[in-house]
Amino acid sequence: MTQFADLGLAEPIQRAVTAAGYETPTPIQTKAIPLLLEGRDLIGIAQTGTGKTAAFVLPLLSRLADANERAAPRSCRALILAPTRELAAQIDDSIRDYAKFMKLSHCVVVGGVKPRPQIKKLEGGVDILVATPGRLLDHVSTGALRLDGVKTVILDEADQMMDLGFMPAIRQIMSKLRKARQTMLFSATMPAQIRKLASDFLNNPAEVSVAPQSKPIERIQQSVLLMEAGAKRNALRDILKAPEVKLAIVFTRTKRGADRVVQNLEKDGLKAAAIHGNKSQNQREKTLANFKDGSVNILVATDIAARGIDVDGITHVVNYEMPTVAEVYVHRIGRTARAGTDGIAIALVEPDERTMLREIENLIGKYLTAEGAALHIPKPVKKPGGGQRQGRRPQGQTVSAGGNRRQGRPGNRGQSQGGQRRAG
Ligand code: AMP
Question: Structure pTM?
Fold first, then answer.
């Protein structure tokens, strides 16, 4: 098995990796680090949780240490672009950890906070700048930052940046960089637009692809509660009051929804905080810190704000409102069962959300409700007068779909659902 010592990283970086408690490199690290140390451009197909941040930060630090240069004023030597403030802050935290035995400057430039302190930090030049695309371009347009000194650029979670509408900004930024540089692009998926971005801006890139460390979804015990919208508040309270809930994330679709859920939980005597795009950066950081240290054990989040939240020990994920895109469900529940632990995911599904539930079942290839399973075909109930109606499961009943119970492809479930099934 490959060891960190085999990868050719500079000594202070190896020391930092040991101090971080890492024993062996993850697959993406084993594959990517040697290529990146050679200076190759790279496309990395990998999700969060695979160790991809260290896969690009460690060789970047090593090359910066070897080059032994200084950043020019209002300039940076390496630029990392990330889709959200949270992810940018998290990458910066990783840089701090991995560079703890080096002399190196780094800073974060993101929207939602005052630009002045950022401008001050940029004045003297920084070695590594971690930024979201919009605010970065603001600083470029005012002259607070020049991009012609960038020798390494990293696009992290490129597909997310595209989903958030950053593609024009990214292209604009890339077009301002010098040609002689190293470029890396990391993305969980490779839609055509990202492939095109890579072919336009990367030079003969190596490509590495890894599956998530262990597919977390298999370790997550998923269940669904079917109920009317009005029953969700009490159901959520009852779920979260259970003693086995140590750290929980509750997902809502909207920012207002998140605030409302927090208010209700607090009225019910639980400690909860919301994290969403209307909160200031300082509020978000404070909330996240309180959640990490357990002083607030329930985080109520919208999808955008939750992106990149990497907190170990989340025992429960509750989908209070179902997402509008099935893939987002998988991303949400992946907040639990990290670092080899198990996790519980519970979805509260109201009648209008049943179509989305079907789409999710199709995506993950397993039924989350017994009514969907061939094993549990509801028996027709004879109505007085000879008519028939399909039996219905009482609302609020939980059906667990955890463990290894594979129930066949939802798409094949045929006609047996009768009146239970919604279109879609
Ligand atoms: P990432 O995929 O970059 O979000 O990393 C996921 C988690 O894995 C982070 O908490 C890292 O600290 C951790 N990690 C990264 N590399 C290793 C490694 N080689 N051994 C153990 N943990 C690691």
Answer: 0.61
CA of 240 to the centre of ligand 1 (A): 29
In the chain, the number of structural domains is 2
Q: Please indicate, yes or no, if residue 77 is contained in any of the structural domains.
A: yes
Q: Which pLDDT score, from 0 to 100, does residue 338 have?
A: 66
The residue whose CA is least distant from atom 22 of ligand 1 is: 22
CA of 213 to the centre of ligand 1 (A): 10
Residue 58 has pLDDT above 70, yes or no: yes
Q: CA-to-CA distance for 405 and 412, rounded, in angstroms?
A: 16
Instruction: Compute the average pLDDT of residues 366-377.
Output: 57
CA distances to 156, 190, 197, 307 from 185, in Å: 6, 10, 9, 18
Question: Which atom of ligand 1 sits closest to the CA of residue 20?
Answer: 12
Task: Ligand 1, residue 47: give the atom nearest the CA.
Answer: 2
Half-sphere exposure of 252 (CA within 13 A, CB side): 22
- Does the pLDDT at position 409 exceed 60? no
Q: What is the mean pLDDT of the chain?
A: 83
> Are residue 191 and residue 273 in the same domain, yes or no?
no
Residue 286 falls in which region: left (phi positive, over 0), alpha (psi -120 to 50) or beta? alpha
